[in-house]
Each structure stands twice: as structure tokens, then as C-alpha cells.
Amino acid sequence: MTDSMLSDNSRRRTKQVLRFVCATAFTVLATRYTYKQMLSRKCMYQNYFLILHLQYLTNLILPTDIPKQFQRNDILQNVIPTNEARTALICASAVTLGISTMLTTGAAMVLNISSLEDFSVLIKSSIKNTIPNEKLLVIDESTTSIIDQIKQLADESDKQESNKDEDQNDPKK
Which candidate, 111, 163, 106, 162, places its Cα nearest to that of 132? Predict the structure, then answer.
């Protein structure tokens, strides 16, 4: 195994982690923006009543302007429904896009996928049950020796099983 293969693998991993971190940062920012928008919608009415109460305390409005018990106190502000819908759509889309991007980049990082070529090789190998392209595998000498030993043991056990089958099927014995 050469140093160029190791540096290539470390560059691939760094790129994958960087993509995941960027997706996470986007998700956090989108979530914070959505949270702020929700708070501003919630506080819209609370601020109105606070201002009304302060005006009452400073004698800027008459006490008759303050709603009494059983009177309607939900004074609506001028809100354009299309702007509210647009904001809700943007917030929901941003959070959904961020979460799906995090899931995609996280899965690609776990499966060691850096490009569409890597993805196609992985899918083809999983369909055909073969070993993926060897340039994607980083195998050192000790690992290759262990793989060779396992293959030899598997071949020996196959030969022994085939000999047993021949002995059982042989009518001379």
C-alpha cells in the first residue's frame, strides 16, 4: 500500500466530513430561522397588549379602550396571508432540505461514497454480489494475507465436502 492511496483516502474522508458539516450548519441555520419566525408570530399579539398597557399607564389612552372581561381582546393586526404562507413554505422547505441533505451526506460518509461513480460501483457490486472496484478499497499487506488464508481454508473445506459426497455416492464402498 502506498502513501498516495492513504492520502487519497484521507482526502476523500475529509471531503465527506466537510460536506456533512456544511449540511449540518445549513440545517441549524434553517432551524434557527424557523424558530425566530415562529416566535415573531407568537409575540405579535403579546407585544400589542404590552404597548396598550404601557399607553394606559402613561395616560395616553383612556381606560375605556382597554378590553374588559367578556370583551373581545384579540385585536388582529394587518397581516397579509400570502406573506405568511410564503414564510411558512420557505421555513418548512429549508428545514426539510437540510435534514435530507444531512441524511444523504451522512449515509455517503458511512458508505465511503464521494461521487456518483462510487455510488454506481457500490450499487452494481451489491446487485452482483461482487467485490467493488479495487481502487476504492484500501487494503494493506496484512489484510491481503488474511484474505488469502481465508480463501485457502474455504477451498480446502469445499474439496473435503466434495470428497465426502463422492464417497457417499460411490456404490463400490
Answer: 111
The pairs formed by 114-123 with CB atoms below 8 angstroms and a separation of 24 or more are: 114/12, 114/15, 114/16
Burial of 23 (0-12, 13-18, 19+ CB in 10 A): buried
Q: How many residues does the chain have?
A: 173
Give the Cα separation of 135 and 69 in Å (integer).
77
Coil/strand/helix, residue 133:
coil
pLDDT digits 0-9 by tens, 99-122: 999 999 999 888 888 888 888 888
3-state secondary structure of 64: helix
What would the mean pLDDT of 125-135 be, rounded to a whole number?
A: 63
How many other CB atoms are there within 10 angstroms of residue 83's CB atom? 9
| Spatial distance between the Cα atoms of 164 and 68, rounded to a whole number of angstroms | 97
Q: Is the Cβ–Cβ distance between 45 and 79 less than 8 Å?
A: no
**Residue 29, C-beta contacts closer than 8 angstroms, at least 6 positions apart:** none
- Three-state DSSP state, 132: coil
